[in-house]
Specification:
The structure holds 2 protein chains of 2 kinds. By secondary structure, chain A is an all-alpha fold. Chain A is 74% helix and 0% strand. In chain A, helix 4 packs antiparallel against helix 5, helix 4 packs across helix 10 and helix 10 packs antiparallel against helix 11. Classes of the chains: A mainly alpha, B alpha+beta. Chains A and B meet through helix 1 and helix 2 of A and helix 9, helix 11, helix 13 and helix 14 of B.
Amino acid sequence: MSVLLTPEVIILFIEDILLFGFNTIAFVIAYRIYKNFNLNSTSNEQYTLEKQTYLASYIIKFSLYLKIISFLFFVFTLDKLSNVIPGAMCGVGVTTASDYGIYLLIFKMLNIYLYGFWLLINNSDMKREDFPFTKIKFKYFLFIYFFFVIELILQSLYFFDINPQELVSCCGTVFNEVSTSAVGRLTQIPNIISVPLFYSLFLLLIFTALKKTVLLNGVLNFVFAIISITTLISFFGTYIYELPTHHCPFCILQSDYFYVGYLLYTLLFVGTFFGIGIAFLKYLIKIPLDYHKISIGFNTAYVVSVSFFPINYYLNNGVWL
Amino acid sequence: MNFKLIDFTLKSLKRRLTKKLSVIFIFSLIVFLLVSVFSISSSIKKELEISVNALPEIIVQKMSGGRQTVIPVDRAYEIATIPGVQNAYDRVWGYYYFVNDNVNFTVVGLDFDLEAYKQKYSDIINLYAEATDTIDAPFMIVGSGVYKMLEDNFYKNFYNFRTVTGEMLETKIVGSFTDVSAMETNDVILMPVNYVRELFDISENYATDIVVRIPNPEEIEIIKQKLNSMFPDSRIVSRLDIEASYQNIFDYKSGLFLALLIVAFVAFFILVYDNASGLSIEDRREIGILKAVGWQVENILQIKFIEGSLISLFSFFLGTGTALFYVYILQAPILRNLFTGASNLKPTFNLIPVINFEILILIFILTVPVYILATVIPSWKSSVIDADEVMR
């Protein structure tokens, strides 16, 4: 139980309980709008609903901002808890301290994408005079709310499930080559395949973005996100640590590596977010958007900064790891 | 986000500043309290870390019926032969109850000709070496707290100890510690070991406890186990044990404080909500005019959001700044007493400046977004006011 009492965890819960309260208000409004919204009507109810759309949008927008901050804070908390939990040396150990950890992390990331897409829809909605997407964006929010609640439940389960007396594995074991864990297996694709795959995917991304084949570009962005993280663990990470046996996605977030992980993950997130977002909005909600430049810009920045480490290592030492 | 909006918000805030003063004041006060308490506690922690590092690796105490008793001096020689042990010293020390002020002094017996087991003691002995070499009556070197207390009781040059047998032991005060970080030496009295034996009635063959110096930290645990089997009647305390118990006390104290502040926080949330909901006639008219000249609900929400961010950021930095000033420049009067206990002979020490950014981030995340969140519904309420309704 002592893990629960650290100030960081208390703050995470305070924040999430507040967000939950406000999102529930937004949910109720969203449901009413989904049921009764009709721009042609001049009834009193329609008038009230139109006013309430602003409140709901404001809450959802603010939730996104706060979720981004609290996600960074969550990762930071995981890192900090690694001092408390025996065996853990970075966030990996803390995440695997409970079975819910990895799902919680996935849901937290997924929800940021989902809230972000909502904001994209909202922006295009507000630009038009007839609010064509109001109904659909709130229908979509009903769906997001469901995911948000799952995340909250997972988070509570996770923090109550951690046993600070129990020994956990550090990243050295989880991403070991003989490891049998699911994440460990993903990183076992040999570098000779995964690294060229990473670069050719990147070239394909630019090509499809220039050709504006939106759907393919979206799918490729999704694959690119996964391959990027795998290669970061199996290949690029080893050059950041300058240690061929160190495979870990969390240690780069620590001060020893100048918190470079926060930069890399942000670049990757923004790049793939717009890539996937364009396809998502075009095919599911039928809103055409043109954010290809942002997507390409950030993805390129990611590829350049991540490639910097092996090249720099080679120039300094004359050998590859 | 555009700069003209920020500029507009600033100007409009300037006009209504007096109304926002109460919120800014309370917000800064909460941040101030949080930052001060955490800074004091991390500063004391730092101080303790430094003094714990100066502690001996292992202390051996003889136990009898669960209570500590005197330990035979021979054991020190035995312990010194264990491989890995650099040195083992027997220590003669105890507490002397000073009736006048109802406090306990820590009286430490030392051989003034030999190197002491503590660097600090050796330094001070060397400082007064000239005076102590020539003297043959009982004498002592006292901590600054003790010195002041004796002086207040008109003992300027000497003090009469009352030994266990009831006799008086007139002891000359040779000098006092002049240490900046006096937390560990404040209540200390250093005396030649033979007089301390006389004072506490400890015979030549016994000592209070034995300290063991071990240069290699990896060997501490093993040697601790060896000592445990060599002397089943003894308690072996290692430095790690002491460190862990200090850590627990401090986590407990700051955790308690945080728990109390959460209550204050709920009150703060309600206050902000209330303050932001109460719109004055001027506020309503301003919004009405803005809407009449073509502002959208969105824009008004935007300026409300900027207003909230500006107020909370300003209050946060104001609170943090004053707190750091209060703790490290003014040395935290009043609040520090929370942490140092209620003894008459309080250790006087300087708070070492340590700025803990983790704590600042923590407090930032706890206060700023929560404030903005509290203004969400009131801002919306004011932004959907109908222009004609207000202007009529």
